[in-house]
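[job 4471] stage=fold_predict status=RUNNING
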Amino acid sequence: MPKTETTPTTVAVPKIRNNVKRRSALDLQIILKEMKIYKGAVDGLYGDATAEAFTQATNTNEAFKKYKILSQHTIGFNETGTRNDATSLQTAIDNLWTTPTTALKTLESAKQPIAKAYRAYWIFQKVVPRPPSIP
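[job 4471] inference complete, writing structure tokens
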């Protein structure tokens, strides 16, 4: 019997070792310092102070907030590591022309604006007569 693969519903976020100097941690500390959020030493170590400042930045910075909202409507996993509904929506969009009955059921039950747009597009393509092609 063939083995079935399952898709994980959550992704474990790995713990960052705080005893290793990293250029990425140094760059992050510099940015957080410029934002006046990070008060610790700029040393390239991703310790508790850096982690807390990063969390504060993600919760207060407008750009971070925007990307958090956008992540909820993208394919795959959101910022909490939970698989989002956009995956089935993307599958429906991909299959709209090959299996329209199934795809339209998914699009009709979806609440995202893009689902409504694709439903409208489908109706437009099927209902509106096309002009004759010019040779």
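[job 4471] summary: The longest helix spans residues 113-127.
[job 4471] exit 0
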